[in-house]
Amino acid sequence: MNSPDKALLAPWPYPRWIAHRGAGKLAPENTLAAFRLGAAHGFRMFECDVKLSADGEPFLLHDADLSRTTSGHGVAGERRWDELSKLDAGGWHSPPYAGEPLLRLEALARWLQANRLMVNLEIKPSPGQDALTGAAVAREAARWWSGQAVQPLLSSFSVEALRAAQNAAPDLPRALLLEELKPGWLDTALDLACVAVVGHHPHLNADNIAQAHSAGFKVLTYTVNDVERADALWAAGLDGLITDSVDKLGPDRP
Protein backbone atom coordinates (compact mmCIF):
# COMPACT_ATOMS: atom_id res chain seq x y z
CA MET A 1 0.00 0.00 0.00
CA ASN A 2 1.30 3.43 -0.89
CA SER A 3 1.76 6.07 1.80
CA PRO A 4 -1.15 8.53 2.10
CA ASP A 5 -1.04 11.80 0.22
CA LYS A 6 -0.64 14.93 2.33
CA ALA A 7 -4.05 16.10 1.10
CA LEU A 8 -5.66 13.14 2.87
CA LEU A 9 -4.36 14.44 6.19
CA ALA A 10 -5.79 17.97 5.82
CA PRO A 11 -8.10 19.27 8.58
CA TRP A 12 -11.54 17.64 8.36
CA PRO A 13 -14.20 20.34 7.84
CA TYR A 14 -17.36 18.23 8.10
CA PRO A 15 -19.64 17.61 11.11
CA ARG A 16 -20.08 14.14 12.55
CA TRP A 17 -23.85 13.86 12.01
CA ILE A 18 -25.20 13.65 8.45
CA ALA A 19 -28.89 13.50 7.53
CA HIS A 20 -29.70 10.81 4.95
CA ARG A 21 -31.34 12.16 1.77
CA GLY A 22 -32.25 15.36 3.58
CA ALA A 23 -34.38 14.18 6.50
CA GLY A 24 -34.38 10.41 6.34
CA LYS A 25 -37.93 9.10 6.09
CA LEU A 26 -39.70 12.06 7.69
CA ALA A 27 -40.09 13.93 4.39
CA PRO A 28 -39.89 12.97 0.70
CA GLU A 29 -36.25 12.05 0.14
CA ASN A 30 -33.92 14.26 -1.88
CA THR A 31 -36.37 17.20 -2.01
CA LEU A 32 -35.85 20.69 -0.67
CA ALA A 33 -38.62 20.02 1.85
CA ALA A 34 -36.48 17.22 3.29
CA PHE A 35 -33.39 19.40 3.60
CA ARG A 36 -35.40 22.11 5.33
CA LEU A 37 -36.75 19.58 7.82
CA GLY A 38 -33.32 18.08 8.44
CA ALA A 39 -31.93 21.55 9.11
CA ALA A 40 -34.81 22.22 11.51
CA HIS A 41 -33.63 19.19 13.49
CA GLY A 42 -30.18 20.73 13.82
CA PHE A 43 -28.29 18.94 11.05
CA ARG A 44 -25.55 20.95 9.34
CA MET A 45 -24.67 18.33 6.72
CA PHE A 46 -26.74 16.17 4.41
CA GLU A 47 -26.28 13.20 2.11
CA CYS A 48 -28.13 13.05 -1.19
CA ASP A 49 -28.10 11.25 -4.56
CA VAL A 50 -27.30 12.97 -7.85
CA LYS A 51 -27.83 11.73 -11.39
CA LEU A 52 -28.22 13.29 -14.86
CA SER A 53 -31.25 13.98 -16.98
CA ALA A 54 -31.13 13.05 -20.66
CA ASP A 55 -30.02 16.59 -21.47
CA GLY A 56 -27.29 16.63 -18.82
CA GLU A 57 -28.95 18.44 -15.90
CA PRO A 58 -27.71 17.17 -12.49
CA PHE A 59 -30.69 16.54 -10.21
CA LEU A 60 -31.49 14.58 -7.07
CA LEU A 61 -32.97 11.08 -7.25
CA HIS A 62 -31.92 7.77 -5.72
CA ASP A 63 -33.48 5.16 -7.98
CA ALA A 64 -32.77 4.56 -11.65
CA ASP A 65 -36.55 4.38 -12.16
CA LEU A 66 -38.97 7.21 -11.39
CA SER A 67 -41.84 5.11 -10.07
CA ARG A 68 -41.07 4.80 -6.35
CA THR A 69 -40.60 8.47 -5.47
CA THR A 70 -42.28 10.48 -8.23
CA SER A 71 -45.45 10.59 -10.30
CA GLY A 72 -43.42 9.53 -13.34
CA HIS A 73 -42.48 6.14 -14.75
CA GLY A 74 -39.50 4.72 -16.57
CA VAL A 75 -35.77 5.40 -16.46
CA ALA A 76 -35.09 8.86 -15.07
CA GLY A 77 -31.94 9.33 -17.10
CA GLU A 78 -33.92 8.96 -20.33
CA ARG A 79 -36.10 12.01 -19.55
CA ARG A 80 -35.19 15.62 -20.29
CA TRP A 81 -35.19 18.07 -17.40
CA ASP A 82 -38.20 20.01 -18.70
CA GLU A 83 -40.24 16.79 -18.34
CA LEU A 84 -38.70 15.79 -15.00
CA SER A 85 -39.31 19.23 -13.52
CA LYS A 86 -43.07 18.80 -13.86
CA LEU A 87 -43.26 15.58 -11.81
CA ASP A 88 -44.62 15.33 -8.28
CA ALA A 89 -41.78 14.09 -6.04
CA GLY A 90 -43.65 14.48 -2.74
CA GLY A 91 -47.15 13.02 -3.02
CA TRP A 92 -45.88 9.44 -2.69
CA HIS A 93 -44.70 10.25 0.83
CA SER A 94 -47.75 11.94 2.33
CA PRO A 95 -50.45 14.46 1.31
CA PRO A 96 -48.78 17.53 2.89
CA TYR A 97 -45.87 17.14 0.46
CA ALA A 98 -47.91 16.67 -2.70
CA GLY A 99 -46.51 18.75 -5.53
CA GLU A 100 -42.96 18.90 -4.17
CA PRO A 101 -40.72 18.99 -7.27
CA LEU A 102 -37.52 17.17 -8.08
CA LEU A 103 -34.52 19.24 -7.05
CA ARG A 104 -31.78 20.49 -9.34
CA LEU A 105 -28.29 20.32 -7.89
CA GLU A 106 -27.77 24.00 -8.65
CA ALA A 107 -30.83 24.95 -6.59
CA LEU A 108 -29.61 22.79 -3.69
CA ALA A 109 -26.18 24.44 -3.86
CA ARG A 110 -27.73 27.89 -3.57
CA TRP A 111 -29.91 26.88 -0.61
CA LEU A 112 -27.07 25.16 1.26
CA GLN A 113 -24.72 28.09 0.81
CA ALA A 114 -27.36 30.62 1.87
CA ASN A 115 -27.80 28.63 5.08
CA ARG A 116 -24.11 27.76 5.58
CA LEU A 117 -24.73 24.04 5.39
CA MET A 118 -22.68 21.18 3.94
CA VAL A 119 -23.36 18.17 1.76
CA ASN A 120 -22.16 14.74 0.70
CA LEU A 121 -23.14 14.29 -2.95
CA GLU A 122 -23.44 10.63 -3.82
CA ILE A 123 -22.89 10.21 -7.55
CA LYS A 124 -25.70 7.84 -8.55
CA PRO A 125 -25.39 7.14 -12.29
CA SER A 126 -28.18 5.83 -14.43
CA PRO A 127 -27.24 2.45 -15.98
CA GLY A 128 -24.24 2.79 -18.29
CA GLN A 129 -23.59 6.44 -17.42
CA ASP A 130 -20.95 6.09 -14.68
CA ALA A 131 -18.16 8.14 -16.24
CA LEU A 132 -20.49 10.69 -17.79
CA THR A 133 -22.28 11.29 -14.50
CA GLY A 134 -19.12 11.38 -12.38
CA ALA A 135 -17.51 13.97 -14.61
CA ALA A 136 -20.63 16.14 -14.95
CA VAL A 137 -21.50 16.17 -11.24
CA ALA A 138 -17.91 17.00 -10.27
CA ARG A 139 -17.56 19.70 -12.89
CA GLU A 140 -20.84 21.40 -11.96
CA ALA A 141 -20.22 21.05 -8.22
CA ALA A 142 -16.82 22.72 -8.64
CA ARG A 143 -18.51 25.57 -10.50
CA TRP A 144 -21.43 26.06 -8.09
CA TRP A 145 -19.26 25.82 -4.95
CA SER A 146 -16.43 27.92 -6.39
CA GLY A 147 -14.92 30.13 -3.71
CA GLN A 148 -16.73 28.41 -0.84
CA ALA A 149 -14.72 27.63 2.29
CA VAL A 150 -16.07 24.07 2.47
CA GLN A 151 -16.53 22.06 -0.71
CA PRO A 152 -19.06 19.23 -1.17
CA LEU A 153 -17.81 15.73 -0.44
CA LEU A 154 -18.32 13.55 -3.54
CA SER A 155 -18.91 9.83 -3.03
CA SER A 156 -19.92 6.81 -5.07
CA PHE A 157 -19.98 3.04 -5.10
CA SER A 158 -18.80 3.32 -8.71
CA VAL A 159 -15.04 3.43 -9.12
CA GLU A 160 -15.55 4.54 -12.72
CA ALA A 161 -17.68 7.49 -11.60
CA LEU A 162 -15.18 8.54 -8.94
CA ARG A 163 -12.31 8.27 -11.42
CA ALA A 164 -14.17 10.54 -13.82
CA ALA A 165 -14.91 12.97 -10.98
CA GLN A 166 -11.23 12.96 -10.03
CA ASN A 167 -10.22 13.82 -13.58
CA ALA A 168 -12.90 16.50 -14.00
CA ALA A 169 -12.42 18.30 -10.66
CA PRO A 170 -9.35 16.94 -8.88
CA ASP A 171 -9.54 19.46 -6.04
CA LEU A 172 -12.96 18.32 -4.82
CA PRO A 173 -12.76 15.82 -1.93
CA ARG A 174 -13.90 12.28 -2.71
CA ALA A 175 -15.03 9.27 -0.67
CA LEU A 176 -15.34 5.63 -1.72
CA LEU A 177 -18.65 4.01 -0.76
CA LEU A 178 -18.32 0.39 0.32
CA GLU A 179 -21.15 -2.08 0.78
CA GLU A 180 -18.57 -4.67 1.87
CA LEU A 181 -14.90 -4.41 2.79
CA LYS A 182 -13.51 -6.58 0.01
CA PRO A 183 -9.76 -7.24 -0.34
CA GLY A 184 -7.99 -4.15 -1.63
CA TRP A 185 -10.58 -1.64 -0.41
CA LEU A 186 -7.99 0.75 1.02
CA ASP A 187 -5.78 0.46 -2.05
CA THR A 188 -8.74 1.41 -4.24
CA ALA A 189 -9.45 4.46 -2.10
CA LEU A 190 -5.79 5.48 -2.23
CA ASP A 191 -5.66 5.02 -5.99
CA LEU A 192 -8.65 7.38 -6.33
CA ALA A 193 -6.98 9.91 -3.97
CA CYS A 194 -10.01 9.78 -1.68
CA VAL A 195 -10.10 11.56 1.66
CA ALA A 196 -12.57 9.12 3.22
CA VAL A 197 -14.26 5.76 2.97
CA VAL A 198 -17.98 5.33 3.70
CA GLY A 199 -18.72 1.80 4.84
CA HIS A 200 -21.95 -0.07 5.51
CA HIS A 201 -22.14 -0.01 9.30
CA PRO A 202 -22.47 -3.80 9.97
CA HIS A 203 -18.97 -4.27 8.53
CA LEU A 204 -17.20 -1.56 10.53
CA ASN A 205 -15.38 -2.08 13.81
CA ALA A 206 -12.55 -0.54 15.80
CA ASP A 207 -9.90 -2.57 13.96
CA ASN A 208 -10.81 -1.64 10.39
CA ILE A 209 -11.58 1.95 11.36
CA ALA A 210 -8.08 2.19 12.83
CA GLN A 211 -6.69 0.56 9.69
CA ALA A 212 -8.32 3.21 7.54
CA HIS A 213 -7.12 5.98 9.84
CA SER A 214 -3.56 4.68 9.62
CA ALA A 215 -3.81 4.93 5.81
CA GLY A 216 -4.86 8.58 6.10
CA PHE A 217 -8.63 8.25 5.64
CA LYS A 218 -11.58 9.46 7.63
CA VAL A 219 -14.29 6.84 8.11
CA LEU A 220 -18.00 7.49 7.65
CA THR A 221 -20.87 5.03 7.73
CA TYR A 222 -24.44 4.53 6.50
CA THR A 223 -27.29 4.20 7.49
CA VAL A 224 -27.41 4.00 11.29
CA ASN A 225 -30.78 4.50 12.99
CA ASP A 226 -30.14 2.84 16.35
CA VAL A 227 -28.74 4.74 19.34
CA GLU A 228 -26.73 1.82 20.70
CA ARG A 229 -25.13 1.10 17.33
CA ALA A 230 -24.29 4.76 16.87
CA ASP A 231 -22.69 4.91 20.32
CA ALA A 232 -20.63 1.78 19.60
CA LEU A 233 -19.33 3.23 16.32
CA TRP A 234 -18.40 6.56 17.92
CA ALA A 235 -16.50 4.61 20.58
CA ALA A 236 -14.72 2.68 17.81
CA GLY A 237 -13.39 5.92 16.33
CA LEU A 238 -15.94 6.73 13.60
CA ASP A 239 -15.69 10.20 12.02
CA GLY A 240 -19.13 10.63 10.46
CA LEU A 241 -22.52 8.92 10.61
CA ILE A 242 -25.38 9.06 8.10
CA THR A 243 -28.82 8.53 9.62
CA ASP A 244 -32.50 8.45 8.74
CA SER A 245 -33.46 9.07 12.38
CA VAL A 246 -33.05 12.82 12.34
CA ASP A 247 -35.62 13.15 15.12
CA LYS A 248 -33.89 10.65 17.44
CA LEU A 249 -30.19 10.91 16.60
CA GLY A 250 -28.01 13.85 15.76
CA PRO A 251 -26.53 17.10 17.03
CA ASP A 252 -29.57 18.17 19.06
CA ARG A 253 -29.77 14.90 20.99
CA PRO A 254 -27.58 13.75 23.92
Tell me about this structure.
The protein has 254 residues and is of the alpha/beta class. The chain has one domain (6-243): TIM Barrel, CATH 3.20.20. It contains eight helices and nine strands. The chain has helices at 32-40, 81-84, 105-114, 130-144, 159-168, 185-191, 206-214, 227-235; strands at residues 17-20, 45-52, 58-60, 118-123, 153-156, 174-178, 196-200, 218-222, 240-243. The protein has an eight-stranded parallel β-barrel with strand order 1-2-4-5-6-7-8-9, surrounded by six helices. Helix 4 packs across helix 5 (159-168). The protein is globular and about 50 Å long. The N and C termini lie far apart (39 Å).
Task: Furnish the topology, listing elements before pairings.
Layout: E1 17-20, H1 32-40, E2 45-52, E3 58-60, H2 81-84, H3 105-114, E4 118-123, H4 130-144, E5 153-156, H5 159-168, E6 174-178, H6 185-191, E7 196-200, H7 206-214, E8 218-222, H8 227-235, E9 240-243
Parallel strand pairs: 1-2, 1-9, 2-4, 4-5, 5-6, 6-7, 7-8, 8-9
Antiparallel strand pairs: 2-3
Helix pairs in contact: 4-5
Mean pLDDT over all positions: 95
Q: Which regions are unreliable across 5 or more consecutive residues at pLDDT < 50?
A: 3-9
Which strands sit side by side, in order, in the main sheet? Answer: 1-2-4-5-6-7-8-9
Helix content: 25-40%
Biggest β-sheet description? 8 strands, parallel, barrel
Q: Tell me the CATH topology.
A: TIM Barrel
Tell me, what is the CATH class?
Alpha Beta
Q: How many β-strands, per DSSP?
A: 9
SSE ordering: EHEEHHEHEHEHEHEHE
Question: Compute the gyration radius: what is it?
Answer: 17 Å
Put simply, the count of helices is: 8
Calculate the terminal CA-CA distance, rounded to whole Å: 39 Å
Within CATH, the superfamily carries the name Phosphatidylinositol (PI) phosphodiesterase
Estimated structural class: alpha/beta
Question: What's the architecture in CATH terms?
Answer: Alpha-Beta Barrel
Percentage of β-strand residues: 15-25%
Q: What is the 3D form? A: globular
The figure for the number of domains is 1
